Amino acid sequence: MAGSSEKKFTEQAQAALATAQSGKMVEAGAERVADGIHTEPSLSEGKTYRLNLVCVGSGSAQLTFTPASTGTETKVPCDQSVVQQRITVHKPIRIDVDGAKGSTGVIAWRIDAL
User: Fold this and answer.
1) How far apart are CA 46 and CA 113, in angstroms?
2) What is the pLDDT of residue 2?
3) Cα-to-chain-centroid distance, residue 104
4) For 6-41, how does the pLDDT look when each residue is reduced to its tens digit (9 = 90+)?
5) For residues 83 and 108, what is the distance between their CA atoms, to the nearest angstrom?
6) Distance between CA atoms of 49 and 88, rounded to whole angstroms?
7) Cβ atoms of 104 and 25 closer than 8 Å
8) How many CA atoms lie within 13 A of 87 on its CB side?
């Protein structure tokens, strides 16, 4: 993916996320779909958060949580739609978003405290 289209995809994804703001931002970022998102956010146990994801490009990505009880596995289409997931933290968590084979673009994400 060329640098200029990656920058454009990142800007589009972050603009879409801005419209979905649902609380106080805790953590956010943007990654290439090919690299995926692999984060272990520092969230407070017993608190509820909203994870917002936007993928801009082509194809899709798969959202998974460890432990699985944190949230629901969800497909994230790379069509600029915002995928929201309410998560409740009981112990340290890991969030992974992996691009499907052949998918390209940028995934932006943010976690808001509710």
Assistant:
1) 12
2) 57
3) 15
4) 999 999 999 999 988 778 999 999 999 999 999 999
5) 11
6) 6
7) no
8) 34
Give residue for tokens 């009880």. Answer: 69
List of domains in the chain: 3-113 (2.60.120.380)
What are the Cα distances from residue 17, in Å, to 2, 53, 69, 91? 23, 7, 25, 26
How deeply is 99 buried, as exposed, middle or buried, from its count of CB atoms within 10 A (0-12, 13-18, 19+)? buried
pLDDT value, residue 23: 87
pTM of the model: 0.91
Read off the tokens for 106.
Answer: 């940028």
Length of the chain: 114
Q: Measured between alpha carbons, how far is 108 from 76 in angstroms, rounded to an integer? A: 11
